[in-house]
Structure formats: C-alpha cells, structure tokens
Amino acid sequence: MSENFVERARYLCSLGGAAATVTALPGGIPILHSASGCAGNFAWTQNGGSGLQVGGYCGGLTVPSSNVQETEVVFGGEDRLREEITSTLKVMKGGLYVVLTGCVPEVIGDDTFAVVNDFRGEGVPIIGAVTGGFRGDSYWGYDLVLQALVKDYVAKGAAKVKGRVNLWGVVPYMDPFWRGNLEGARHLLELLGLEVNSFFTSADTLGGIREAGSAELNIVLSDLYGQGAAQVFQEKHGTPFVTTSLPIGVSASEAFLRQVGAALSLDPELVQRVIDREKRHYYQILEPLTDCYNDLDLQRYAVVVGDANYAVALTRFLADDLGWLPVLTVVTDRVHESGQPAIATRVERLASGFSTNVVFESDASQVLGHLNRVWPRAAGQKYYNSFSPAFVVGSSLDRELALQLGAPHLSVSFPVANRAVLDRGYTGFRGGLRLAEDVFGQIVANR
Amino acid sequence: MSYFDNKVPPKREDRLNAVIAHQDSICGLARKGKGGKSCLIDDGERGFTQGTICLLLPALAMLNSLPDNVVLLHSALGCGSCTHSQNANVRMGSNARRGKAQDGIWLSTALDETDVISGGEDKLERAIIEADRRYRPASITIVAGCVPGIIGDDIDGVAQRLQPQVSAKLLPVHCQGFKTKIWATAYDAVYHTIGRNLLVEKGVAEYTPQDELEVLREQERLARTVNLMNVSSMGRVDEQELERLLASLGLEVNVFPVFAHPDSFVKATRAALSISTCPTHDDYFLGYLQERFNVPSIIKHMPIGIENTSLWIRDVAKVFGFEEQAERLIAAEEAELREALAEFRPLFQGKKVFVSAGEFRALATARLLQEIGLEVVGIRSFHHDHFAEVEYEKLAREAKTDYVVDIANVQPFEEANLLNRLKPDLFLGHANGNMTAAKLGIPTHVIYNTGLAYIGYRGVYELARRLHRQLSNPAYNRNLAENLRLPYSDAWYEAEPFSYLNTRGRSVNE
C-alpha cells in the first residue's frame, strides 16, 4: 500500500457514496452542494463499477446540484444553495431531501446546516450531511448519511418493540450486489421471526425508517461500514448493536443466525430448527454437484481481493463451504492500523482449520508481489509445488492478475465492470448456492 | 504572447464567449449566425440546476488512453473515479490498436483534511517520485482537481522542481471544475500541456536518411501525411472509416493524440495538414500548431452524415489539389450509400426525433437524421459558440418547423418537460443521458460510444441500421414508462420548460 497515492481507487469519495446512498433510500432526493462535475463523475463511476447499475429514482445526472462556480468561491455559496433547495422542492417530487456537501463549499466555509435548518424549521422533510470528498471514501459517505438520518430523521423516544431490528453494513452501489445481499440477510432474520428494517430494499419505507428508533437491536454486517452510525444510534436512541461479517454461504449464515439469536436471547431451539431446515435444503441442492466436483477436480487454490466485507466473507465461503485453499486475502480498503486486527482475525480462525494470509493493499498492481511472498515462485527445480489450479475472486481490476496466473476469475467486489447485476445476492444459504454456481460456472465456461 | 506561454489555458467562456444557458430556436440561431450577432449572446443562469460533468471527465478520457502514461490526480479521493467506465474504452481501444486489452493506470493523491489545511505539494512530490519508480512510465500527467485550485497548490512548480529527479516526462494539466462551466475547456487543458511539453524531440536523435532517394521519399511521404485529430470522440472503427477515405485520396494518416505514445507526439509537428473532425475539440491546439510549427489545418465540418462527410472530404482534397479524385470518390460513395439506406427509409419516414449532445455532435447528427428521413423536432446542445453557426444554418434550411434549441449542460428536467410536450418518436442522447427519454417510453439510442460506428459514410449506414433496430421493437422503454415515473412533480410538467432560465442573477439573453 503506497503512503503517497491510491492506485485505481476502488471507491469514490464520501460525497459519491453519500449520493448513491440517498438515491437508494425510498423516495430519496440528493441535493448536492458542490461543483458541477461531481454528479457526472459518480454516474460514470457507477457505469463502470456497479455491475451496470447507474442511479435509480433520482440518481445519475438527474440529481439537483448547486453547481458552484468561481463566483461562489469568492462570495460564498449559501444563497445559491438556498435558491437550489427552493427550486428543488418545486421541481422534484420526493419523500426525503438530503443536502450533501462537496469539497468546494466546505473549503470555502459555507454554513450548510444554517440553510438546511431554515427549511426544516418550515416543516420540509430535509436533512443535511457534511460529505466533502477530502473527508474519506464512499463507504464513509454511506456512514455519514446514516448518521444524518439517525440524528435528524429517525423519531426520538420511540418505545422499543420486541423482535424489531435494523440491518446495515451493505453499501448501495459500492456493493454491486447490494440489493440481493440485503434481501438475503433480511430473509435470514425473517426466518427467526424478526421484523427487519433494512432501509434500502423495496420492502422498506420512509415511515419505517422514521420509526427505526423502536428497534431493539441494530445489526451491522460489516466491521467498517455503518459502524459510526450504529454508535450514534446507540447514543441517540439507546439501541445496542452487534457487528457480524457478511453472511455468505452455509457456514457464515449458520454463525450469523446463532449470533443474532444470542444477542436477542431467542429460543435456541427455534434457531436450531431454522438452521437444520435451511441446511437440509442447501445440501439437497448441492448433492448432485458431487460427481462433477470430484470428476472435474474442482478444488482450487485462490486469491481473494475485495473490500473489507467481501475479502472476509468470500475467503470464509471458499475455505469453509467449498473446501478451497484461499492462500491470500487482500483487503482493499485503506483501513487504519487500529481497525485491521478486527478484520484479520475473522479469517485467521476459520471453521475448516484452513488459514489464509491477510494483507491490506488497495493497489491491483501490487497483489502479485504479495502472492509471490506467500507462495514462492518456481526456481527452475524439476518438481515444483505450483500455485495451480488457481482461481481469482476479486474485482474487474484483478483480471490482469488472473491472466498472469492463468486462472479463471470472477468479479464480485467493486469495480464490477464485466457483469450485469440486478438483484443477485450472495448472502444467506441460497446466496452461497448462487456464488457456487458463479465460480464453478467460470471454471467450466469453455467446457 | 501565445496562450501556451501561460501555465493555465484560458477558459472557453473568455476565449470563445461560449455559453451554457440559453433558450432559442433553430431559425433564431441560424439568423444570429448570418447577422454575425451570436457572439452577443450573454450566458444565462438557471435558478434550478442538476449535476453534470466538469472538464476533468473528458480530459481523463484522453489522458487514460495514452500508452505508457500514468494519470496522477491531485485532488480529493473521488475525482477521477469516472475512469472506471472510461477504462472500458481504454481496454477496447488498446485491444483494437495493439491487440491487447490493457487497463489504464490512474492514481490519486487523495487529499485529506490535513492536506486541505497545510497544502498538498509535499504529498504530490512524493507521489510523483513513487509513481515514476513503480511504473517507469514515459509520462506522468499531473491532473489538478478543485481542491488544489482553492488551497493554492502549484502543480507546475512541483513538476518543474521534480523533473530533473524523474525519468518520466511530467505534464501538468489544469482541471479545476469550479473554474469553468464549459467542459470543452478540457480539450484545451490537455492540448495545453501537450503543446508546452511534448512537441520537442526527446532523447534519441532523429534517424537521418543516408541516400538522396530516401530523403526524397521521406519528404514525399511527409508532404502527404495528415494529422487526424481525435480527442476520444471516435472509436477505432470511426478512425478506420476516415483513414479509408483519406487513403483513397493518397494521404497517410497520423491519428492524434488519443492512443498515441507520448514520445511520438512530435510527429504531429511535421505533418502537411491537421484535420479536425469537430470544432468543439481542436481549435485551440490547431492554432498553436499553425503559429509555432507552420502546420496548416482544417476545422469546419464534422464528418457525420452524408453531406457533412462529403464537405469534409472536399475541404481536405482542395488543400492537396485532389478535387477531381475527391468528386469521383464522393459520387461513388454517396450513390452506394443512398441505395443501401433505402431499405430503412420507410420506417423512418415522418418520425420525429430529438437530439442531445455536445454542440457539434448534436447538430451534425441532427443533419444526418434529416438525411435518412427523420424529422428533427428539438435539439439540446451542451454549450454554444460561434463555430456552430454554419451547422444551425444547414439545419434551418431543411427544418419543417422552427423547433426548439435548448443550450444546456444536460439539465434533464428541461428535457423531461420538453419531451412530454413534443412527444418525439426517437431520442438520441449522450452517455448517461438517455435515461429520461427512456423512462418516458421514447425509443432511445446513444449518440456517442467508442465501440460503435458513427462517422463517415459507413457511420451513416451503421447508425441508420441501429436506429431501425431500435424502432423495430421499442418494448424495453415502453415497459419502463408503463411501470416507472421520473422524479419530477406534476406541477413541473405544467410549467414552462424554461421557467428556471435567468431566474437568478446575471443578464437576460438578448
């Protein structure tokens, strides 16, 4: 990981993540207070990275934006923002308007909240978030929007309702499989009889989000994304949270159900019944693969390259569910040193007993170097235990690595330029079956 | 003093009086051209605006295509993430030209809160040195976004200081998005650094032919070598069409600057002529090539559509005295094309079309659509400057009605309102710009995509063929319209489409 630059960053800035997050909210209208090019930059990025998904109800080049120019840099942009919000309320039909700031207004010192609060005072459903690009990446932008919702939109003082939970940690558009993954995780929780508020699926509503304070537990499917908001939520609304990894596949889903069951003190027998039923179904479906798994010798060495959610979850799936050998796990987020152990330990103690090598590296061009360190290259010897047959699960930027290794490849983590993704998801028991289909499908593609 | 003596190129608002907010009609704009008054259009302002792009995006589309170049963005983390989609063009383009799909290399100094306060020059210096060592590129383009523009980082100073320490050629490019509303300033920004840094012989002495015959041959070759300017608006398939046409006049083509190796840029200074395909792209640089290296240029018609392609060829032929040859070529090509188009015409006849793109692209494409039998009922040009007057005149001559021209840097809310009134049968829009029309149920087609053919005679046929395909089954968009709604209020559809033009500050259009 370079100290001085990020190579082909696998994320946008916090404004980019924030805008995508608001677009994904039911009836959400982002209002950018930024330079004119930010929205277009996000649209182009999603076009190339989010599995062919650009925007939604109000995304892409449709988002209102104050488009600040030199005049505003000199004289301040607050009047322009006020005008833009006033016009937006007339032109755009939405349920919730969220003002998001970019670099320029923040550097020149605009008081965005002063403007937003004037409209709030008049009863307009509008909130603001300070999301200037220099504050962090798009995953942090997601967190900032959730924090704004928690602080300024979710109703205070709601009585807790037994069995009601909020579900976070999957970032819209940054995870190209966000819809499917949220629905898969939601489905797992519903199997336990829980009432789930996941904010971004078609089953969610703004009314539900406003009542989110009534949840007895927040479940964050990520060691990083949404953690800030979960803490703010606990402070403001008194709801505790549990952090889990993204539950991809049978082993992870089982652990996830047990963890949530324990956190909510659910009847262990109920949890066990659900797990038994789902596993029976899973293995019934997997059963007929057995001949070909053996006959075609489908076990693989693997390199996993992905964001903090996927790097962990995919490694675990490959090792614990498929019995593969993922020898290198590359986490592509720029994680602060203090946050690295929490992620690394998740793949150091795998149920299968297999352990991988974890590195934190954002730059695709450096992954082969890391692999060479953990798996020395041939030195001309007659017998060489080569890194083959291999598979690369990563992003479309990791195709080059796969080519160099002569390995098949599947894009899962952002950017996914070479797959069309609508509501496919890998979470849950069934998600594991989808992922198994996709990786084995790549191996036999030329059969 | 030349513009190229300054660190930063002028913005197009200043250099060309280009505007982005104006309401007019086809005849109105054509008349202004004839009366020589169009420069008097003051730019308007909108009281409601939607996000668009800035000059950084088209600049990166060019820079990422250069082989052996590393793009180093000096800005906050998100600037340049657009490359994730542009990289598809880099991969396809390098595959088409060099037989291997290759990813571009783009880096970001990812300025953070500390840098905003204490300045980012030190970080940039370290990034340049590390990029030079890690990638060993021929050049590093140092592209500044908004933040360095406000905090005052001097990327030219850094490049100058570090150049002796690195082997890559350092090329500063100024793309502060808040400084210009006209994103076509991007082309000037890239050409500016090319002109200042890459048009001189580098390192190895030029090969000197030994015998006289070789000298003569080389002179003869250069005398019929032309620069074909491409700033990324043409894919390889379009370049090939123009190369084919120019080769049939006996000309050799040097495509410049996309996908050209930075070390080879100097070739552009030795050509007999530079040919632009779009006045929105190249005027800044062609003026410089003329002034500094005596390379004359043609920058007038865009070779999109039958008439425009023929006019484009005639202009080139005239320079070399190949008029007769050109007329024979044109006659043969046009006859063959018109015959081939006959099968599509019945479906196009009487259908109304709305066109949206960069000004020249929109106008030339509109002319093409007229030629294949469609009726143009509206145009949105992303900006306006005087180069386009001749195109508005061509369109006005053939217009059935005095239809609307919206000068707007996208602004789909105006488009939604206009389309709802005009109800065209077909819409052609730029990348990420067809969504509004599609959700209204109008058949749509992308007006620019480097994987598809648009240019020359072949482009006319291929575009007609694709439009015929779209119109033969527009069910996809129809289904969208029946099941989705755009995010605009009912009141907005009732309002005048230009209600928000000039509701804020500034002067009113004359």
UniProtKB/TrEMBL annotation, chain A:
SUPFAM superfamilies: Helical backbone' metal receptor. Pfam families: Oxidored_nitro. Residues 13-440 form the Nitrogenase/oxidoreductase component domain. It comes from the Bacteria. This is Nitrogenase/oxidoreductase component 1 domain-containing protein. It comes from Geomonas propionica.
Automatic annotation (TrEMBL), chain B:
Residues 54-470 form the Nitrogenase/oxidoreductase component domain. Pfam families: Oxidored_nitro. InterPro entries: Nase/OxRdtase_comp1, NifE-like. Coiled coil: none annotated. This is Nitrogenase component 1. It comes from Geomonas propionica.
